[in-house]
Amino acid sequence: MSVPDDRPQPSDHRAGPAFWVSAALGWTVIAVGLRGLLSHRIDTRPANLATFVAGGALLHDLVIAPAVLLIAVALTRLVPSRARATVQGALLITGVLALFSYPLVRAFGLATHNPTSVPRNYALNLTVVLGLVWAVAAGALIVQLRRRA
Amino acid sequence: MSAGETPGHLPPSVRRFTTDCDLPLHQAAYQSPLRDERLAAYLGASLGVLFSLCFVTGLYSHLQQHPQSWLPIPARPAGLYRLTQGIHVASGIASVPVLIAKLWLVWPRFVALPPVKRASHLVERVSLFPLVGGGIFMVFSGVANIAQWYPWRFSFTAAHFWMAWVTIGALVAHVGAKWAISRRALTRPSRRPLLAEPDPVLGTVADRAAAGGSGLSRRGFLGTVATASGVLTVATVGQAFPPLRPLALLAPRDPAFGPQGHPVNRGAVNAGVVDLARSPDYRLTVGGLVTTPLSFDRAELLALPSHEAHLPIACVEGWSFSAAWSGIRVRDLLARAGAARGRTVLVESLEPIGAYRTSTLDPDQAADRDTLLATHLDGQLLAIDHGFPCRLIAPNRAGVLQTKWVTKVTVL
After folding, report:
1. Chain B residues inside the 8 Å CB shell of A22
2. Theoretical Cys-Cys bridge with B203: which of A83, A124, B27, B167, CB 3.0 to 4.6 Å?
């Protein structure tokens, strides 16, 4: 695919020495890591590890990001424009908290039979935290609407 | 809004300058005021700081667990490891929303065309695989590990350690590639650029919020990401920082929950030591380079001169607590056995197998006044999950190296 000439060419700048020095340094460090991964393959299980590394990136790029895009589109249809920013913010925080809490809520740590794993009711606690987030969001919305009224 | 359509309220010149030639689709197809180089630079710089903190503190934790004779671990300050590992886990947790936001901003570039323009562009794009794959993996594996969730077959510590080199290497290459553009974006006056100013890197369109549109503005987005980081931090950091313990609703561990009011990383049942620790045949022996090998049964162990020390125990998983431990000083034990000063000491557990069944004390740690074979925690006999009949407790030491169920001390 060729790029029309009249468009700006942001990445057409020539790479300077700093680019190549940091690329060389960076790839040397990457090589150290890859060598370590391969020379400790009994512990690192490179094939299994590779599925998690590639899987994480693909899961984000092909599932999570498009899903967020769909939610964003739905928001523009369903939420009045005045409330949209606040709802977007609260949804973003909700998503992050839910992702982080997922292994806690599912209580995967119980599998280790450690008597001190999973010390809390994380489903309840997540609900409490999300309740606070949405209460703050609702408060902010009310303030905004009053100000504009 | 369909591809190719121009936002009605923007003049054509803006459309021209805000169309990123790197993007395969017309910018208007997924225009967002958020895909902005200044915002990307802010998030990138924040991630750079958080990942660097994680890397440096992670290296220190690795050094603790893989001691090097040329770089002995000092005994003081006693709470150093508690601080560094607390920072490691807290920085990792705080980076979750920042990483997600950063990926969201640059995601359209995933499908940028043409894929390669020249050699430097190829190098830059290839470096994104270890950066994105590594960044997501490091954060995911860390979060899963502190929740003690192991959906994989590799060793967490080995994979997390070596992938950290891959990720930080990719970060170095990426910082070099983005240095000029980030500097320009971050040093630009904070006022919005003129609408007609070419700002094509991430395909900025005019700020629709400012133009009477809706949705999060850049400032709002950055504030939301910071809030998400803050909420996550406040809801978890109490596992290492006592004043915030009441707020630690989402912390994987509670420093006040467990036998004797404190958590453990591994219980006696898991370690397979319950019968051995309770057996009347239990002995603590001191041997190796000593003039008088020693052996104590449980009653003799309890009769030894006891010293009390207030020391933190800090787990690699990020939780920690401080407590009063008492038992015989290791240096007193070594003196009794006639060991020379300045030796390294190997401490062995009753555990039949496991990566952490032994640990070594560097000479500085072995000689410290607070390095104990503790028999009591907070004035009570140790619970079996805490290491009964006796456990090692020493200053500035990773929790997994505070060997429990100690049965053998060898002077090397």
Report:
1. 172-173, 175-177, 179
2. B27
